[in-house]
Specification:
This protein is an alpha+beta fold and 539 residues long. The protein folds into two domains: 4-221, no CATH class; 359-539, no CATH class. The chain has eleven helices and 20 strands. β4 (102-111) and β5 (114-124) form a beta hairpin.
Length: 539
């Protein structure tokens, strides 16, 4: 039996393996959405598919990758069909995934003839086909319109490439060299992770690796149970709304949570959420669980080891057919809007239990913009803009900060302008976009793209244009978003859910994102902070 020192050595080594995998993707990927925006994640799993360690990447990915692997093992590629050198991939939300741009890859790790672990990578790819470039169609009404669906299958079989699968992917996407380059980066990352685990296994043995995995899960469970037990018992409810689904315009989508804390257990009832909608603002259970788990883990008042053991004390009630547990073939491209807003709804409920830990609402939305220029060559740019974080009970929110379900960077302006016929005219903070309060919400962003190509098509899939990020404890809401087209000096609004809007040379698209909500009454804002606000406005 392993002692506590050996367990800590193995636990930290698994974390290091996930981090090595992370760096491998960053250094070898091809597209700007992976290499610069950093929209990817890496993780290590035990032999049964439970998450043991993860890199510091995207919460929405990391808390769903175990769900997908367990689904694959149960229903698509059974345990006995995995061999040394295999890699299984999928992007299908109805086979355990999230949305079609996210391709997940898993590799088993064997030592002394026994499977001791899996390693996994998930990348948001620049395009997987469908109605709109970037595969983020705002007007899709079924998943068949959203792009290429890859069921769980072996892209490598005992180390041999399945050339038919690679050819099928290449034939169905707009930027095949970028996608296949990023997919190769995922495979390289898996090899790095597998090699790190084998070094551990050679030192400790297969049986010790299995034991360590079980102990790590138990440790995470114990830490999560203790954190929940320190919250006051009770049921806490909150409601928020998404603007609409892009099809039934002006029809808000209700998200309602009822969080019940009882001893060291938590249950989250989502039965009060809206039914699934016609447009792509739906989420599958993998995405929904990720937001719920993340919200509760963030409420821990002491450090946790983030593994699937944290999920054990938490029960999620989400009947099939709701917007948070969509039924096939509902479109789900914009599932991230649901998870962002669900996290905010969870936070609104948990504020009633642990008010000292919960900030006001952050911008709560992925501002997804896609430009496809078609001249001598076809170029695709997918950008995901952010906004301001919510004010904390003890400090202002952070300006233009990737919050909540996000952990993205931005794509450097110079790189965009070097690769596409676009010019960034403005990129800066949006004055006055944070909610007022004793502590002010963080500011959102303003960004302008000028079209320098004779043919360009613009797609947007966004929210937070009607329902503002809320304030807490008397704090004010943040500003809502704004999207406009400036043509020949005249501005006109662009609907925030728009597919393939034709643009011409000289057009300018301007996006203004939401800030974060304020915390506490504005009348209590410190004098020094008010002076700083005025100085910022003057500058």
């Amino acid at each position: 039996m392993l002692g506590p020192i050996e367990i800590e050595v193995i636990r930290n080594a698994l974390n290091a393996a996930a981090a090595e995998m992370d760096v491998t993707v960053w250094r070898t990927s091809r597209s700007t959405i992976v290499r610069e925006l950093l929209d990817y994640s890496t993780a290590v799993f035990d032999a049964e598919g439970w998450n043991l360690a993860q890199s510091a990447r995207i919460p929405g990915h990391l808390n769903s990758m175990s769900h997908a692997l367990r689904e694959i093992l149960a229903n698509f590629v059974p345990s006995g069909q995995w061999h040394e050198g295999d890699v299984v991939v999928t992007n299908d939300p109805y086979c355990g995934g999230q949305h079609l741009p996210d391709i997940i890859a898993y590799k088993p790790v064997f030592h002394e003839g026994r499977r001791i672990a899996f390693v996994g990578t998930l990348c948001h790819h620049i395009d997987v086909g469908g109605l709109a470039a970037g595969s983020y169609a705002a007007k899709a009404t079924e998943i068949f319109q959203e792009g290429l669906r890859i069921p769980p299958l072996k892209i490598l079989d005992r180390g041999i490439r399945n050339e038919g699968v690679w050819a099928m992917i290449r034939q169905n996407i707009r930027k095949p060299d970028l996608l296949l380059g990023d997919l190769s980066s995922q495979l390289a990352s898996l090899d790095v992770g597998a090699a790190a685990l084998l070094r551990l296994a050679r030192r400790f043995g297969a049986e010790a690796m299995i034991e360590a995995g079980a102990r790590i899960l138990d440790m995470s469970e114990a830490g999560m149970r203790a954190a929940i037990a320190r919250m006051p018992d009770g049921t806490y409810e909150f409601t928020d709304f998404l603007d609409d689904d892009g099809i039934d315009l002006g029809q808000p989508i209700r998200l309602h949570v009822a969080v019940t804390i009882q001893g060291d257990l938590a249950s989250v009832d989502l039965s009060g959420c809206s039914p699934q909608v016609a447009g792509p603002t739906n989420a599958t259970l993998a995405s929904t669980n990720a937001a719920v788990m993340f919200a509760l883990m963030c409420c821990a008042d002491s450090s946790l080891h983030m593994s699937a053991g944290c999920y054990r004390p938490i029960t999620v009630i989400a009947p099939e057919g709701l917007v948070v547990n969509a039924r096939h073939p509902a479109p789900v491209a914009h599932r991230v809007a649901v998870t962002h807003r669900l996290l905010g709804t969870m936070n609104g409920a948990l504020h009633q239990a642990v008010p000292e830990l919960i900030p006001a609402a952050y911008y709560g939305n992925s501002y997804v913009t896609t430009f496809q220029t078609v001249a001598e060559t076809r170029e695709v740019l997918v950008e995901i803009e952010i906004g301001g974080s919510g004010a904390h009970p003890s400090k202002d929110g952070v300006n233009a900060y990737a919050s909540g379900m996000h952990n993205n960077s931005n794509i450097p302006i110079e790189m965009i302008e070097a690769q596409l016929p676009l010019t960034i005219l403005r990129y800066g903070l949006r004055e006055g976009s944070g909610g007022e309060g004793k502590f002010r919400g963080g500011l959102g962003l303003a960004r302008e793209w000028r079209i320098d190509s004779p043919r360009c098509f613009f797609t947007a899939n966004m929210d937070r244009f009607d329902h503002a990020p809320y304030g807490l404890a008397g704090g004010g809401p943040a500003a809502v978003g704004k999207l406009v087209l400036r043509r020949d000096g005249v501005e006109s609004p662009i609907p925030p859910k728009t597919d393939n809007l034709p643009l011409r040379k000289g057009d300018v698209v301007r996006l203004e994102t939401s800030g974060g909500g304020g915390f506490g009454p504005a009348a209590e804002r410190p004098t020094a902070a008010k002076a700083h606000d005025e100085e910022m406005r003057y500058l």
